[in-house]
Design a protein that fits this description.
By secondary structure, this protein is an alpha/beta fold. Helix content is 34%, strand content 19%. It is built from 17 helices and 19 strands.
Length: 505
């Protein structure tokens, strides 16, 4: 793409260095807010409880017209919350990220990029809500409810944030949690089947994601950032105003504005040489795997879109994020084999994760995998098949069974390899399980702790153990009980025990 934009005076987006991606305006004093942010009046952050007490008064104060009261309750709640908190998103640059995979890591990279430029930024996402810096709250949903979105953004603004990066889920878009958020940048990472328990069809899932891009209507204030390797790219690009500036990124499509010239993967770091409209950028990242190169490219593209001060700032910010909780997180207790914990819980994510691990040339891949209860049943056999195809050893186990019987979930998974739970129930816990037709081993342990310990006990020098599905999560839901459970801690405990046994001879 040829860039013909000229420097704004004064800039409407990010900085005086916004010389590669900015627009002239006939009204130079309008839209003075930068995408990196500009100081605005600080507002006091007020608790949700206080908001609820004066909900009706807020509606009157904001002069909500009578016909608006005929809207559904959630629409009114969101509108009133935004009004009560004085529309905080209008006073910050808001970057929304949607897609099936990669949202969390990309949001952390963007956060690091802003902080590298000395700018405060908030974050709303799957792992946590960062109000300022390392001050974080535990996340309940990828996209918070409408009132909490406004409350947290008001707190961010009060704490001096110039911007907020937000993971935008399909459910959040579908139920209108983001309708009153004034997004400036829409980012699309990728799209594969997911959340069909909520959306029912893939098309409805895609339409929900598209709502973020439909908000991109003002060429002066809005930007689109799209992964054009994804077959859905043109669909998302077409949403909203076609005149809104677009920055594309890709691994394979060299016509993308941001793409790698070369890269190198290892268990310890990822090195990538990135071509951008502003020059070439070399990045050494602690984030592992080909899929994380996509996330790095997405963050670089956002930096280009918002007019970051320099490529060096973009690179420095990305490099400071050497790990994201539960995303290809390496567990090292001095063992002779590798252990990775990852949030991969969709067929595509598991496929990409195991492909990356295979590129490290391990002797064996040992994968621990489960599927959540009361969620997409269609993906259970598919994920089991992917794991058994790409791992020498697979251990199927539980992953938040919720109201379902864990054995029923495992039975669904086993269908992907032509087996049933009855085939496994006849064996004792430590008995030999016959290999699959491809020669790979498949075990079943309905207790996740046992599955992880079994995998670690199998590990030998040169092997890679992959524990997939829960990542950063610190709980296990079974029935109506939610108990503490952390895959990372379970791996560490198992490794310490194995190391003690090894040292004892």
């Amino acid at each position: 793409m040829a860039f013909s934009f000229t420097l704004l005076s004064p800039p409407t987006l990010l900085s005086p260095h916004y010389n590669q991606f900015s627009l002239k305006t006939r009204h130079p004093h309008h839209h003075r807010r930068h995408l990196l942010g500009e100081p605005f009046r600080r507002l006091p952050a007020i608790g949700v409880e206080k908001f609820q007490q004066i909900h009706c008064q807020a509606a009157r104060d904001s002069k909500v017209q009578e016909e608006d009261f005929r809207k559904n309750e959630s629409d009114l709640e969101e509108s009133n919350a935004a009004s009560f908190y004085r529309y905080p998103s209008k006073n910050m640059a808001v970057i929304g990220i949607t897609g099936t995979n990669g949202k969390t890591t990309t949001s952390y990279l963007i956060k690091g990029m802003y902080e590298a430029m000395g700018l405060r930024i908030g974050l709303l996402g799957t792992v946590a809500y960062y109000v300022y810096g390392d001050n974080k709250l535990e996340s309940s949903y990828t996209t918070p409810d409408a009132v909490l979105v406004q409350n947290l953004m008001a707190k961010m603004l009060h704490n001096g944030s110039k911007a907020v990066v937000m993971e935008v889920s399909s459910q959040g878009l579908a139920v209108g949690r983001c309708n009153m958020v004034d997004f400036n940048v829409a980012v699309f990472t990728n799209l594969t089947r997911d959340h069909l328990d909520f959306h029912v069809t893939e098309e409805e899932y895609r339409k929900a994601k598209a709502k973020l891009f439909q908000m991109m209507v003002d060429p002066e204030r809005h930007r689109k950032v799209v992964n054009i390797d994804d077959p859905n790219a043109h669909f998302f690009i077409a949403q909203g105003n076609p005149d809104v500036p677009l920055v594309t990124f890709a691994m394979d499509n060299k016509n993308a504005d941001v793409h790698p010239l070369e890269f190198e993967l290892s268990l310890f770091e990822t090195q990538v040489l990135v071509n951008t409209p502003r020059g070439v950028l070399k990045i050494s990242s602690g984030l592992l795997g080909r899929h994380n190169i996509y996330n790095i490219l997405a963050a670089v593209a956002v930096g280009i879109a918002v007019g970051a001060d320099s490529l060096e700032d973009i690179g420095r910010g990305i490099e400071k994020v050497d790990a994201v909780p539960g995303r290809c997180e390496v567990i090292d207790e001095g063992q002779a084999f590798g252990v990775i914990v990852d949030y991969a819980h969709t067929p595509d994510a598991v496929y990409r994760l195991l492909d990356f691990v295979r590129e490290l040339a391990p002797k064996r891949i040992i994968t621990v995998l489960g599927c959540g209860g009361d969620r997409d049943q269609w993906k259970r056999p598919t994920m089991a098949k992917i794991s058994t195809d790409k791992s020498e050893v697979t251990i199927l186990t539980s992953d938040n069974p919720r109201s379902e019987d864990p054995l029923d979930i495992l039975d669904d998974m086993l269908a992907g390899v032509g087996r049933t739970m009855q085939d496994y129930l006849k064996y004792e816990e430590n008995d030999y399980y016959p290999p699959l037709p491809n020669g790979h081993q498949l075990f079943v342990h309905s207790t996740r702790r046992v599955a992880i310990r079994s995998a670690v006990a199998m590990g030998k020098e040169g092997d890679m153990i992959v524990v997939a599905g829960k990542g950063h999560e610190t709980y296990l839901i079974q029935g109506d009980k939610k108990e503490f459970f952390d895959d990372r801690e379970e791996c560490r405990d198992a490794l310490k025990y194995v190391n003690v046994l090894s040292q004892a001879g």
